[in-house]
Amino acid sequence: MRTMAIVRRVFKQMLRDKRTLALMFLAPLLIMTLMYFLFQNNTTQVASLGVHHVDQSVVNVIDTKNVTIHHYDSSQARKMIKQHDLDGYLTQKNGQLTITYSNSNPTNTSLIKASLQSGLVKLKMKTLVTVTKKQRAALESQQAALKKLTAAQTQATVTKLKTAIAQAQARGDQATAEKLQKQLKQATATTSSSTQSAKATSYTTKSHYIYGSSDSTFFENFLPAFLGFFVFFFVFLISGVSLLNERTTGTLSRLLATPIRRSEIIMGYLISYGGFAIIQTVLTVVFTITVFKIHLVGSIWLVFLTNLLLALVALTLGIFISTFANSEFQMIQFIPLIVVPQIFFAGLVPVDGMASWLQAIAHIMPLYYGANALTAVVTKGAGLGDIGVNLLILVGFMVVLTMLNIVGMKRYRKV
């Protein structure tokens, strides 16, 4: 009976909490729907490949459905890849093909590899077929000429032997006539000729990687995005739960009863929690670089700066979302709605290949800009000017959320 009493109490409590019920039942459905549209997208992924002085026959056999080809006059692969944001750069010297991969996007690297390899196989088979046809035509021509020559030589020999036999018989030299008749039966003419065969052009390939290597794993290639995500996630969670705890225990109400301004309260939270966010960011970045030995192409200071801005955005977002939660349980339930979708738009699924409405959603996600900046710095060696727009947008998110937090704090001030 006591157990049933507890069951009834929990059910009543849950049924009264409409927000918890909505988060519990609707949040999984929303996430599953988002995943459906993300992974059911039929848009073809296309990689960009630059070429320089490559035989047209090679260019023609590369699969242009999955690879967009651009022609350039420079042989400096690394410079051209960075300047034009290419996934690969192909150059040729005699029969040596040299392919340089950016390798910042493993999917595009695989597309170029597969297209180039299959193209070279097709080209080799096509060349062998052409050579075989030429050799066959040349051989048939030589056989016809040889047959004609042999027939002419045989006819001349037969005529000569017949004449000699007739002369021997006229002289009564029967032995010589019989000998000549045997030669007449065995008369053949053989001619040897050399056949000149065409040689198929053979290409060899050599690969270089700007970021990582041919043995790079999925985790290594997406580590910059994961780094930003974990910084964002834990700062969001800790800041939201901490402020919620102050509100539910009455600390925030007592603080608002003082003459202190709402903006000062918010700035105090940002500075205090921001200090811990800085420490967490430094530890996470240093741990990632030293333990996982991430191959860093760009500046480590830009990695720190980007992660710090992500942490500050997560801090302001966590404070803002906590105002909509009445318990820590509800705060945790906001994670599938606010945080989980961020990782889908952080580079795990190429945003350029998504439907237009999904791309619009990606552009309102802070982690989209943070992951783009981190990936550009780590894998492409981007500088501050290259990622400046992404960083400014993160600053914009932080400013807007801070203003919303100041306005939202008004609802808790009773005096």
Automatic annotation (TrEMBL):
Q: Name one GO cellular component term.
A: plasma membrane
Q: How does it sit in the membrane?
A: Multi-pass membrane protein
Organism of derivation:
Secundilactobacillus collinoides
| Annotated localization | Cell membrane
Which family does the entry's similarity section mention?
Belongs to the ABC-2 integral membrane protein family.
- Principal place of residence: membrane
Sorted keywords for this record are: Cell membrane, Coiled coil, Membrane, Transmembrane, Transmembrane helix, Transport
Q: Which GO terms describe its molecular function?
A: ABC-type transporter activity
Protein name (Swiss-Prot/TrEMBL): ABC transporter permease
The coiled-coil regions, if any, are: 151-190
Transmembrane intervals: 21-39, 222-244, 265-292, 298-322, 334-358, 387-407
Q: Does the record bear Cell inner membrane in its keywords?
A: no
Domain ABC transmembrane type-2 span(s) in chain numbering = 187-412
